[in-house]
Amino acid sequence: MKTMDVTALGELLIDFAQKDTNTFEGNPGGAPCNVLAMLNKAKKKTAFIGKVGNDMFGNQLKAVIEEIGIDARGLIVDDSVRTTLAFVKFDETGDRDFSFYRNPGADMMLDESEVDLDLIKDSKIFHFGTLSMTHEGVREATKKAIACAKENGAIISFDPNLRPPLWDDLDEAREQMKAGCALCDFIKIEDEELKFMTGKDTIEEGVKDLQDAYDMKMILVTSGPKGAQVFCNGHHVYKDAFLNRNTCDTTGAGDTFCGVCLSYLCDTPFENFDEEKLADMLTHANAAASIVTTRIGALKSMPTMEEVDEYIAGYRQP
């Protein structure tokens, strides 16, 4: 009997979010851990595999994920590399522009020998993204983790999470995104990432391309303020976003959305998702993502599911 709901592998870093022209505020972040943080708020048991530097940022990050309840035994603290940093500027809509300090950064230096396979063997779901596929060493670590997860019957969850500044070659980024698609059962992808990867102009065409090429059980496509849709068991369900005039930081909104959906998957087998269940999942995922956009940072800003229910019940279109 597996005791861990979701284990994720990837980046754990500090997001420095712009507050005004000359001021940035540092917040714990990194997409895989953001997903786990939301899962923890949904009362799921989670664990993280990755690497930080033995510096003020790495020690802070280790303390934060332990504080919020993510199992950190798979987190390596390395004396020889520095913790990855990301600087995030916002436009007037809250959308982001990233600059990464990661050449190298600790997250990309995870070696396959450092992957905690026992943790993966004990997990119902294994989650990863493409930031752990940008460089050869961590790519091999990711492949080893996925192989272990598959061998032990875990559901494979994938977020392509394209960040162009981190790739020397965007054709390589596309190939690694496709490699992830070939291995996963569940994917959460943004509409622009779908278009980039498939070359298709519409979401429906892009999803059909994925369905024809890969054996995915659930495909979730997010479109920011334009809502989200899911394709599963022959069903196609769309739900509007929960727009909020207090939106100030969209960092982590997609991760929050993904975490809610994985929480549903922890409780319900793929084959039991009907249109009603899929609609309920999308509604809660959209609402949770909306809440997070009203808070700076993501990892420590996730709502409880009780907060999400209250938000849905009291929501009025702005």
The H-and-E topology, N to C, reads as EEEHEHEEEHEHEHEHHEEEHHH
Which of globular, elongated, flat, extended, rod-shaped describes the shape?
A: globular
Poorly predicted runs of 5 or more residues: none
Gyration radius (Cα, Å) is: 18 Å
Q: In what order do the strands lie side by side in the largest sheet?
A: 5-4-1-8-9-10-11-12-13
Helix content: 25-40%
The strand count comes to 13
**Largest sheet at a glance?**
9 strands, mixed
In angstroms, what separates the terminal alpha carbons? 46 Å
Structural class: alpha/beta
Structural write-up:
The protein is α/β, with parallel strands linked by helices. Helix content is 37%, strand content 25%. The protein is globular and about 50 Å long. The model has no long low-confidence stretch (mean pLDDT 95).
Topology, pairings included?
Blueprint: E1 4-9, E2 13-20, E3 23-29, H1 31-41, E4 46-53, H2 56-67, E5 71-78, E6 85-90, E7 96-101, H3 117-121, E8 123-129, H4 136-151, E9 155-159, H5 170-181, E10 186-190, H6 191-198, H7 203-213, E11 218-222, E12 228-232, E13 235-239, H8 253-267, H9 275-292, H10 305-314
Parallel strand pairs: 1-4, 1-8, 2-6, 4-5, 8-9, 9-10, 10-11
Antiparallel strand pairs: 2-3, 6-7, 11-12, 12-13
Helix pairs in contact: 1-8, 6-7, 8-9, 9-10
Short key terms for the protein model shown above:
alpha/beta; four-stranded mixed sheet; 10 helices; 13 strands; 25% strand
Brief sketch in words of this structure:
This protein is of the alpha/beta class.
